[in-house]
Design goal:
Oligomer: single chain
Distance between the termini: 96 Å
Strand content: 15-25%
Helix content: 40-55%
CATH architecture of one domain: 2-Layer Sandwich
Number of strands: 4
Order of helices and strands: HHEHEEHE
Radius of gyration: 35 Å
Shape: rod-shaped
Largest sheet: 4 strands, antiparallel
Length: about 130
């Protein structure tokens, strides 16, 4: 009976002592901690030709009032918009089969946001700022 007890207690005691030793706070030193960076940043300078290409690609901001599949609908919408927004430059811009009615041209977002607020006050709640190439 004592032999069975020793063969049972001895392995359990060994496992228990290993578990306690591995949970001890002094087992892991700060030198053992390895931090792996998962993001690599590559810093490159912009070449002169890339800067020239960026200068060529200038964006212009406009406020889009609506977009239509039919030129007639766009013309009707534009005439109504000219009455509500008197004195403003309203243009129909065609891209593919879509005719977008836009107003204004802005070079910075602050002016475009201010005018968008004005346009929404005139009843064009779905108007938004759009970038176009020129």
């Amino acid at each position: 009976m004592i032999k069975k007890f020793i063969f049972f207690i001895l392995p359990v005691a060994a496992i228990f002592s290993v578990m306690l030793y591995s949970c001890a706070s002094d087992v892991y030193d700060e030198d053992d901690i390895i931090v792996v960076r998962d993001t690599v940043t590559i810093v490159t300078d912009t070449t002169i030709s890339e800067k020239r290409d960026m200068e060529k690609l200038r964006l212009l901001l406009v406020i889009q009032l609506g977009a239509f599949n039919s030129r007639d609908h766009a013309d009707n919408f534009m005439s109504t918009a000219k009455e509500k927004l008197s004195g403003e430059q309203i243009v129909i811009r065609e891209t593919g089969n879509v005719f977008a009615v836009t107003v204004g041209t802005f070079s910075n977002t602050r002016n475009a946001e201010d005018y968008l607020y004005y346009v929404k006050g005139k009843g064009y709640d779905k108007a938004f700022i759009k970038n176009i190439k020129y």
